[in-house]
Amino acid sequence: MSRGVLTSQTDLPTSLYKRWFIKNMQEKHFELLIHRQRWLRTNSSLSNGFRSNTLSKSYQYLSNLFLSNRTLLDQMTKTLLRKRWFFPDEMVIAICSNNESLV
């Protein structure tokens, strides 16, 4: 009989420890979920800002590139027309043939 009492007394701390461990794990799990939610909210807003900024910078770069190329094309065209190396009707033919080759 004393053996049964000893067994139950040694099992008691183990069962208390198991209950505490399980409860502690559940609390830790909820804490991790809360921290994860906060992290996702913070980083998703940062990510959206990063995407927006990247798109804006890309648009500015491409816009400047096309505008500078357009300016360069206009300068070349004016120079060729001024020196009479290129005539307006030839320019129309060149533009039309380039557009057809792109399609």
UniProtKB/TrEMBL annotation:
Coiled coil stretches, renumbered: none
Q: Name one GO cellular component term.
A: chloroplast stroma
Localization terms from the record: Plastid, Chloroplast stroma
Primary residence: plastid
Q: Which keywords accompany this UniProt record?
A: ATP-binding, Chloroplast, Nucleotide-binding, Plastid
An example molecular function term from Gene Ontology annotations: ATP binding
Is the Plastid keyword given for this protein?
yes
Role according to the record: Probable ATPase of unknown function. Its presence in a non-photosynthetic plant (Epifagus virginiana) and experiments in tobacco indicate that it has an essential function which is probably not related to photosynthesis.
So what family is this one in? Belongs to the Ycf2 family.
Q: What is this protein called?
A: Protein Ycf2
Q: Give the organism the record lists.
A: Lupinus luteus (European yellow lupine)
